[in-house]
Amino acid sequence: FFSENGASYITEAVEKGACAxxxxxxxxxSPLAIPVFRVENxxxxxxxxxxRYTGHPEKHLRLIAVTGTNGKTSVSFFLSELLRHxxxxxxxxxxxxxxxxxxxxxxxxxxxxxxxxxxxxxxxKE
Length: 126
What we know:
Elements: H1 10-15, E1 21-24, E2 36-39, H2 42-53, H3 72-85, E3 92-93, E4 97-99, E5 104-106, H4 114-125
Parallel strand pairs: 1-2
Antiparallel strand pairs: 3-4, 4-5
Helix pairs in contact: 2-4
């Protein structure tokens, strides 16, 4: 889902008030007047930042993953409904939709980006 290198927007980000830059360790960069944090994996750090920002809701939930080549969506919906009928509150993250247990949202990706996933997990926790 990322088709451009964010490093090309650093100057614009600084001009608009960015207070720090996080970028891959190997990206070349001219000196800046704000802190620069170099990391091995920007996407991983981005996800970890969202997890921390939302209070690590994933630590307060029982998560079940469904893997395989075919049938993941059907199994996920069946499992969610079975658990719900057994008295558990359920949420769902999948190809067809995301659900926080009360509301259903159309999905953008099978696995949502961190800025969508962690707030959704937070709603599930609530």
